[in-house]
Specification:
310 residues; three-stranded antiparallel sheet; 8 helices; globular
Length: 310
């Protein structure tokens, strides 16, 4: 085992050490060591990526279609370029899995810690002229999403949180450093209401399985939205549940998952015990299904049948 002795003290990680263990890059230490300085550094990178998207949106986007039939634009690539450069500076030696780059250069293995990136979540919303698209960045360690940042640049908002450290919403001009935020608000999920449950649903990907499961919710209102904003709505207590019973990708979920968990919520995945593990190279980083809850006691309280996953 080769210790790089590359402590992240300059980024606020005095107890965390990047080391190489049998070829895997690992972040050691209590995740509480991921303090505000590192969180601000990564948030500033995400903010810069959001500004790159807005700059690209002012020009013709000329969308093309990827192999999975999803659209990609110059804005996606501009954001990814900013993120890859910024993250490599903030976390040297840590592998980065990004939606667009992974197609051309998939990792051989991910047994340690890594960063999971969606440079533009909600490209369809962008192309439709809506402002719900986001930039998503998550730190994954041990298969779990430990830190997440979700920015909605067109809304001037950034949500972030990390394991054991709580979650917050920043009002931030895209391109500004996190320290320049005009407003910082701690956010928490809300207790599941006895009536008037609010379900965040996908605007562009509402599938029949999810629709059928939603019909079982008592007196539920639907809040349609694109991208990882749905996780953040639950984290803020503006919604209660977000079901997605159709396949999606890890980079669509990991950052929002971390923000939601830091705010007091939970995500139920298809694995035994309801876990959701990140880093599935063999599965093409696909997630078959999940349900995100603001109140972890809600499934038992509502006595709902378990949704079919996978």
């Amino acid at each position: 085992m080769l210790s790089l002795r590359c402590t992240l003290g300059l980024l606020g990680l005095p107890r965390a050490v990047i080391r190489q263990d049998e070829g895997a890059t690992v972040i050691d230490g209590d995740m509480h060591a991921l303090d505000r300085q590192l969180l601000d550094e990564l948030s500033s990178v995400v903010s810069a990526a959001g500004a790159a998207i807005l700059a690209a949106r002012r020009r013709p986007l000329e969308a093309s279609t990827k192999a999975d039939h999803s659209p990609v634009t110059a804005a996606d690539h501009a954001s990814e370029s900013v993120l890859l450069e910024g993250i490599s500076r903030a976390l040297p030696g840590i592998p980065v899995v990004s939606e667009e780059a992974v197609v051309n250069s998939p990792p051989a293995s991910l047994s340690g810690s890594f960063v999971l990136v969606d440079p533009l979540d909600g490209t369809r919303e962008l192309l439709a002229g809506r402002d719900e698209f986001t930039v998503n960045v998550a730190i994954v360690s041990g298969g779990r999403s430990r830190l997440g940042i979700v920015a909605a640049p067109a809304l001037g908002l950034l949500w972030r949180g990390f394991e054991g450290g709580g979650a917050e919403r920043l009002v931030l001009v895209p391109g500004s450093r996190a320290g320049a935020a005009r407003e910082r608000t701690a956010i928490r999920t809300r207790a599941c209401p006895r009536s008037g449950l609010i379900a965040a649903v996908s605007r562009s990907h509402l599938d029949p399985q999810t629709t059928a499961w939603l019909a079982q919710l008592p007196d539920a209102q639907r809040l349609a939205c694109g991208s990882a904003v749905k996780f953040c709505q639950i984290a803020e207590g503006l919604a209660d549940v977000y079901p997605r019973l159709w396949t999606t990708c890890e980079w669509d979920v990991a950052a929002g998952h971390a923000v939601l968990a830091a705010a007091g919520g939970m995500l139920v995945g298809p694995e035994e015990g309801g876990a959701l593990t990140y880093g599935g190279i063999e599965a093409g980083f696909r997630i078959p299904a999940f349900v995100a809850w603001g109140d972890p006691s809600a499934p038992a309280t509502l006595s709902l049948p378990a949704p079919r996953m996978g």
